Amino acid sequence: MLKLYALRQEQYPDFYKYHLTHYLKDHPAQEETFFTHVRDITVNRIKHFKRTDPFAGKYAANMLSATKLENFYKYLQTIDRWNKSKPIEAVINEKDEQIKKLKEQVKQLEAQVKEFNKYEAGEKIAINKGSLPVFIDLVLQLQELTMQNEHKLLRSQTQSPWYKMIAKYFLHGENEIPIDTARNYFPARKGEQSAKFISIDEKDKIYEIKSRTKK
Prior knowledge:
The chain is mainly alpha-helical.
């Protein structure tokens, strides 16, 4: 940009071609990318200068720079083979609208994060070291429990809520439980066990959940 401010309009083509040639040496067949980049930084600088406080000491100098950049932008329009260029006012308005939308998205995301954090636990539940299979056996039993009407007490279409819950809310001793480790206890389909599947040894099946109503 600093070099551009010192050029006359008739020097724009040579100036642009010089930098384009240099760019294409390392990025062959990417002229459109180069053009888009040059156009964008030109628009952004024009927008910056146009927003200068009229009472600021650099106002006159900034307006002169903006005028020179607008002349360069007009040159870019003459070589735009991709129909990317628009009147500068339209481009600035478009970018302002994009900024407005992004700010609204940020507000929405911040609200979502705030809502999400309401359900975040301050600490994790620690499973006794060496007893992870014992705990998971209980979780597997929970999946099989039925009510008196023969409906499942707990239902999920996939196994992911179970192993993600364990990885997120529990520790094994003082250590985090890797989600892949938890997943390996829960095959996607019962009976279709992958090579990484971890089965519960009989010695770890030390608890049995029973219904009081069944004899």
